[in-house]
User: Which sequence fits this backbone?
């Protein structure tokens, strides 16, 4: 089984993505053991200028682990 990424959210700034990570890891300390990534993405709307968002993602060891984490976060 190969590792997976779980997207935890997209935020207007890197600081807001970092704040969301801190809130999540306070509530779910286990997530601190997983690698996290904050990556910028360009979002193009119809007829508007591109906007930059910062995608907060979490690395997991397997699809099964990703599924469990997603289920736990959805329940919360």
Assistant:
């Amino acid at each position: 089984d190969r590792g997976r990424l779980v997207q935890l959210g997209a935020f207007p700034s890197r600081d807001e993505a970092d704040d969301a990570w801190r809130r999540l890891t306070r509530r779910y300390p286990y997530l601190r053991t997983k690698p996290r990534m904050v990556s910028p993405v360009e979002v193009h709307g119809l007829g508007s200028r591109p906007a930059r968002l910062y995608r907060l993602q979490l690395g997991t060891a397997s699809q099964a682990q990703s599924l469990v984490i997603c289920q736990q976060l959805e329940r919360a």
About this structure: Residues 4 and 60 are 5 Å apart (CA to CA). The helical segments are 14-27, 63-75. The longest helix spans residues 14-27.
